[in-house]
Amino acid sequence: MACRAALYLLALTASITHVLGAKNPNDILRHSITRHGYPVELHKVTTQDGYILTLVRIPGKGAPVLIMHGLIASSVDWTVQGPDKALAFIAADQGHDVWLGNVRGNTFSKEHIKLSRKDAEYWRFSFHEMGLYDLPAMVDYIRINSSSDTLHYIGHSQGGAVFLVMASMRPLYNRKFASVHLMAPAAYIHRATSPVFQFTTRVEELETIAKMTRTYEIVGRGAGSPVELLHAGHKMGLIPTDLVLTNVWYFTGVHDSINRSIVGDILANTPAGCSLYQLLHFGRNHLAKSFQQYDYGPDGNVRRYGARVPPEYPLANVTAPISLYYSEADNFVPAEDVEDLADSLPNVVHKHRIGLRKWNHIDYLYDTNAHRLYRSVVASLTDQRGTAEKK
Ligand SMILES: *[C@@H]1O[C@H](CO)[C@@H](O)[C@H](O)[C@H]1NC(C)=O
Ligand SMILES: *[C@@H]1O[C@H](CO)[C@@H](O)[C@H](O)[C@H]1NC(C)=O
Ligand SMILES: *[C@@H]1O[C@H](CO)[C@@H](O)[C@H](O)[C@H]1NC(C)=O
User: Fold this and answer.
1) Which sites are catalytic (predicted)?
2) Is it the case that residue 17 has pLDDT exceeding 60?
3) What's the predicted TM-score (pTM) here?
């Protein structure tokens, strides 16, 4: 049995190179834009701690907007629905200078000035470092390259959490944003009910296994990786679209709203990988019912923070004008958690509770009608700092 399974996997792996071809990450990024007829530029940005990130730009004459993906996602997710449907193109059509981020550790931001992704040390980051180093590096670069004092920001899920980390821990960055739009920001997540969160009761074991096996990258891509096998299997018709969707719905709640003809395109680049420490950080915050810094255990916390429990992110420092978008049916970032977040933020200029009963966490990316939400977000990319001061 085991032998047959192994042979089968071997055959599948061999055919993968054939089915998918070997693609260079930069080519994938360029193709994600040019296949839809838009111009593209790739920009490499180096963080203070040496990670080299790839920003994808659809150049425009208007104000720059930085669009940030969520956990295990990438810039490609903002393009996969194509013109008139995907956020990147809707923003570009409105004349914006569109910049799509890729955080450290995903398929497209895996380089480092000294470390290799094979080093355990490379993967020692959570969303904390993304907020502290990745975002500021991107923001500084975009401001200089586009000769613009301020930019707009749109983030989904972890893309919201990283903004809040930056704006609370490095408050000087608040002034650099004309408006900030967070869709289901994964800050407070203690009411999350998705079965995904079942792992949180076993975070310690997970960490032990990772250390034993020296496996810190989760759902990363690469020849022969499980996610590439899934993609190849789907492409060859061995794994039906319905089976993929059923598994997605198990985690997100059933909402038959993804265009079936793009499921193959989605699987081609999503999931895009992350570090185990991102999962552990979210998991521990879920249990702690808090949006707080990484938990290193009582002794580690005393050494690092001078207290046995990690400090919360000081949300009172987030003075940029924030708009929040959230939904009742989101079992990752529930509406009540976002409302609690709104109460902790000093400058919420707009709250948009999505009225669709089944709108779930990934509908922000893949719902066939997500373009309606995108149009309303893009229409509000105006300077909202004035609103800020009046409040
Ligand atoms: C922006 O980046 C491009 C590509 O690296 C470069 O050619 C251009 O000179 C930069 N512009 C500014 C104003 O820095
Ligand atoms: C953030 O706000 C807290 C008070 O809530 C303040 O003590 C702290 O200095 C601020 N952080 C930074 C980095 O300015
Ligand atoms: C589904 O995707 C296909 C391929 O991109 C597109 O032609 C079609 O219009 C989409 N359908 C809907 C309902 O968006």
Assistant:
1) 157 (nucleophile), 330 (charge relay system), 361 (charge relay system)
2) no
3) 0.94
